[in-house]
Amino acid sequence: MPTSYMKLPYEDRVLRPEALRSYDLETGPVGYSLDIGLNYYRGLPLSAVESLELTVDAEPVPEHLILVELNGKLFPTSQLSAAFTEFWPIKKDLRIYVFNGGIEDGPHQVDLRLILRCVYMQFAPGVWGMIDNSASRTLTLQGER
Amino acid sequence: MNIDGIEQGISLYSFNREFVTLPDYTIEDALDDLVALDVQQYELVGSVFFEHYPRPDPAEVERVLAASEVRGVTPFSYGGYMDVGRITGHDPGPQDYILDLTADLRTARELGCRYLRETNIPIDLLPMAAEFADYYGVNIGIEVHAPSKPSDRHIQEQLEAFERIGSERLGFIPDFGCFIERPAAPALDRHIAAGADPELLEYIIANRHSGLTEDQMHQRIREMGGGEAERVAIAEFFGFLSFGPADLDGFTTLLDRTHYFHSKFYYVTEELEDPTIPMPALLSAIVDSGFQGVLMSEYEGHAFQDSDAPLQLARHLRLEQQILSGSAKQHEIRSR
């Protein structure tokens, strides 16, 4: 059988210390954003995202509260698989917005499960190499950019 | 350096850790590192260095050309990919391959590269690929990469297809990662640091070619008390760090159809020895074949150790020079 889940040693750049930021409007807190880096050696099409699950402080974040931003465009997680003309370059972060009304200041335990399809590594019809881009980290909420 | 018609180049993939992990490290920095090693020919991998892929923005191509010109270096080859799995749930067909090949040929041409590296082109599309290579004036090399080996049936079938088609545009790029005889110590150290049991790692290495599949090996190691750290090691040893007796006979069958080489390496000691890849045997086969062209050093130790790419590349270039000078003399003596 082929290599199943590849995990490269760039995990530290998936959730950087300053990745978690509050997202406020003049009307008040709207939610927060989270920047996600690639743990791979090259960029990938956005459609390579096979699954993206976010858990903050042990609470899974509901899918309908999440929007993903890349190249100035927003996608619900359910549409990422269709975004095959968007390229996620290796030096650029994916930004996730969570519209939950905000979270408290201070540290938060962030667990990201992100599986990517290795789009050039096909082992059999419908069977592709997979990249484990998951990471866990305690992140302190930062102010807005 | 050029030794009797074999020129040393460097794949910028060698600086992958720097490029990926250092926010301020740019293509210009990679080219500076290349120049510091006194090397002029290089390979650029589009999906690493460009923000847009499969087709880079024209300004990105312009930037590479300008940075190269000012440093007196040349993009010799362009590293392309067949990203045919980009459409989720779609079984790729000829159109998907042709799209990616065309995109990469266009970029290679714009960069002035003589060669395009491709990861895979189905055999029935090779005649069309040769035609497209003529249109764009760029030669296409299919990389022979671990876990494949030159003697593998699908590689030999490609070789037969190249012969049948008869176009000089088509050839191979053998990657020396195919000839890993044993994982390098730093690769093992990384797994041990992650919690893998050294004895279980030795068991995996000793039984890698016992006929067990990756899943069966995983199952057995679990029964022996192994966990996640061993699973990651197994995935690596059955994948890109696949190892075994070097397929030198298979290697020689490809040499007449080789465009250039990816002189892949993971670790060169201070004494200028590569404990993983049989460099003297590989390079002397190349010299004996009469090959004239580029030997592209490609450091991949960054996959498992903190990188010192410039130091490792400097050692690797010297190691190649030593072997090539010796092999060239031997070859001359044998040819008399």
UniProtKB/TrEMBL annotation, chain A:
Give every C-glycoside deglycosidase beta subunit domain span. Answer: 11-120
Q: What is the superkingdom listed in this entry's lineage?
A: Bacteria
Q: Which InterPro entries match?
A: CGDB
Going by the UniProt record, its keywords in alphabetical order are: Carbohydrate metabolism, Lyase
Q: Which GO terms describe its molecular function?
A: lyase activity
The family assignment reads: Belongs to the C-glycoside deglycosidase beta subunit family.
Descriptive protein name: C-deglycosylation enzyme beta subunit
The organism of origin for this protein: Agromyces bracchium
Automatic annotation (TrEMBL), chain B:
**All residue ranges annotated as the Xylose isomerase-like TIM barrel domain in the record:** 49-312
Q: Which InterPro entries match?
A: Xyl_isomerase-like_sf (IPR036237), Xyl_isomerase-like_TIM-brl (IPR013022)
Q: Which UniProt keywords apply?
A: Carbohydrate metabolism
Coiled-coil annotation reads none
Indicate whether Iron appears among the record's keywords: no
Family matches, as SUPFAM superfamilies = Xylose isomerase-like
Spell out the protein name for this chain. Answer: Xylose isomerase-like TIM barrel domain-containing protein
